[in-house]
């Protein structure tokens, strides 16, 4: 049988090395830089990503057929509500209106004559005029009245069709490039889209908020006494890129139900957009402030470590003993990174968690 020989000296040396690596205390004389948290106000907020949409977008279509006679705007320019944009050959519709007005005049004359005949017969001695004759005259009067109503309806329809020959802006906005040229036959055999008008001021931004953030906002709203009618009191900041000044808006719609598949809630915010900073189709970064803390704690990034257990700092006691303190990260400010947890405003922490100091070490802390 083969015998295994142990080398006690080498085994003892390996064990001592392992012990040193696992629990290497920093010499008491070794100085380690420490810092204390900076106390400063913190504005805590939710961060979301939203998609910009036009508040209104309408296709301008030809509702009557005819030749396009005029394009009264420049592609892409802003227009005011009621501004003339397109003119479709009005002459045939103007003639149809005149014909309908003439029919109304004729029907009115017929009714007046029938009414006069009825009034005359009724004034005569009833014994000399048969009742059947009076009924016949009354029927003629009623038929004339119906013909007048029909003629008036045709006149109104002709007037509406004439109005359709002029296409005007339904609201203040920007009109896209025209899709039909002057002289083209439009509205023949179907709908002809001439252009699209979009309203860019205000701008709408839609986004989906996780249910956890939704619950947080709801709690904040309850604490502030807000109801669904007070959504406009919830401020939203929008940025198209980092470092620029935000556009300030407010929430104006929250979906009544969450999406069970994604665990999110659809939300819409409205922003004033006179300078067209927010264009439809852009993705923007949103910030929704929900809480302001006057005495938040901030530390430099180097003082904060992270592992599978989460974020932490290395706190140093009055006796120099180093201990791990778990923290959660808040907002980033000018004073550094906000940390929340059991850490106190006067607690010292190791300035650099990568300096080799470990929990359980005893160090000479230098502020």
**What is the straight-line distance between the termini?**
64 Å
- Poorly predicted runs of 5 or more residues: 1-7, 16-29
Number of strands: 19
Q: Within the largest sheet, what's the order of strands? A: 2-9-12-11-10-13
The percent range for strand residues is: 35-45%
Structural class: alpha+beta
Number of helices: 4
Q: Roughly what percent helix?
A: 25-40%
Note the run of SSEs as H and E. Answer: HEEEEEHHEEEEHEEEEEEEEEE
Radius of gyration: 41 Å
Task: Estimate the mean pLDDT confidence.
Answer: 83
Largest sheet features: 6 strands, antiparallel, barrel
**Spatial shape:** elongated
Give a verbal description of the structure:
With 367 residues, the protein is of the alpha+beta class. The protein is 26% helix and 39% strand. The protein has helices spanning 8-22, 91-123, 131-164, 211-223; strands at residues 31-35, 38-62, 66-71, 78-79, 84-88, 166-168, 173-175, 185-186, 192-210, 235-239, 247-254, 264-271, 283-299, 305-307, 310-316, 322-333, 336-341, 348-350, 364-366. Strands 2-9-12-11-10-13 form a 6-stranded antiparallel barrel. A 4-stranded antiparallel β-sheet has the order 6-5-3-8. A hairpin with a 5-residue loop joins β15 and β16. α2 (91-123) packs antiparallel against α3 (131-164). The longest helix has 34 residues, at 131-164. It starts with 7 loop residues before the first helix and ends with a strand.
